[in-house]
């Protein structure tokens, strides 16, 4: 993908989520069944980064665990909602590709349904490399991406790409949010996510599929050590 176009898509994604923040947050007031199992990797008093925290709902799965939590997101509007909903938690607007934290800082990095919004192989590798950088030596990355199975969308954008009518890469789509916007999504497979994780220097411990409620996309998840 052209680098300038990738930067345009990053900016567009931030703008899209600022635009739809109230509606988006209202559909994600609670952690969906399936994501709750991700809490098992946390130990008490650990430093945890929620990378792409949105409205902060992942905090709900840690409610019975004493942790040092930090949530970051590129959307100012979603961070405002998160801070209002969870006033005792620490949130900030930050760039996932240039994390404002020192090396070896967090015990765990969680990233739920974020990586598929990052355009281009180059920037997705940078995302993973930044997550690895801020993890402690024995730290874990727990990450999910959509297991997108919308054949009409993927077929449409594959045809456009094949005929030179799209700047997107193959396996990229634009997913509508009502009439408000079209969100950039990269359609991952387990194989591709494994490959990217290894390329970033992680040691894969677990890969699988999280079943989401009916009407929601299932998630591919990966657990990897530094």
UniProtKB/TrEMBL annotation:
Biological-process GO terms, alphabetical: methylation; tRNA modification
Protein's name according to its UniProt entry: Methyltransferase type 11 domain-containing protein
Key words, A-Z: Methyltransferase, Transferase
GO molecular function, one term: tRNA methyltransferase activity
InterPro entries given in the database record: AlkB_tRNA_MeTrf/Diox, Methyltransf_11, SAM-dependent_MTases_sf
Organism this protein belongs to: Candidatus Nealsonbacteria bacterium CG09_land_8_20_14_0_10_42_14
Chaperone listed as a keyword: no
Coiled coil spans: none
Domain named Methyltransferase type: residues: 49-143
């Amino acid at each position: 993908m052209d680098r300038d176009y990738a930067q345009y898509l990053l900016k567009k994604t931030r703008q899209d989520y600022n635009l739809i923040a109230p509606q988006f947050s209202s559909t994600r007031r609670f952690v969906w069944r399936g994501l709750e199992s991700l809490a098992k990797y946390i130990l008490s008093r650990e430093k945890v980064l929620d990378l792409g925290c949105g409205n902060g709902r992942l905090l709900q799965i840690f409610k019975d665990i004493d942790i040092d939590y930090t949530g970051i997101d590129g959307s100012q509007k979603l961070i405002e909602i998160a801070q209002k909903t969870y006033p005792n938690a620490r949130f900030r607007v930050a760039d996932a590709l240039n994390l404002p934290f020192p090396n070896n800082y967090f015990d765990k990095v969680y990233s739920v349904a974020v990586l598929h919004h990052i355009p281009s192989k180059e920037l997705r590798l940078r995302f993973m490399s930044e997550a690895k950088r801020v993890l402690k030596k024995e730290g874990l990355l727990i990450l999910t991406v959509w297991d997108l199975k919308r054949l009409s969308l993927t077929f449409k954008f594959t045809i456009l790409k094949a005929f030179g009518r799209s700047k997107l890469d193959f396996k990229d789509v634009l997913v509508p949010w009502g009439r408000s916007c079209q969100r950039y999504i990269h359609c991952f497979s387990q194989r591709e996510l494994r490959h990217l994780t290894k390329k970033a220097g992680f040691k894969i411990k677990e890969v699988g599929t999280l079943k989401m409620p009916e009407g929601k996309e299932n998630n591919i998840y990966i657990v990897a050590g530094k």
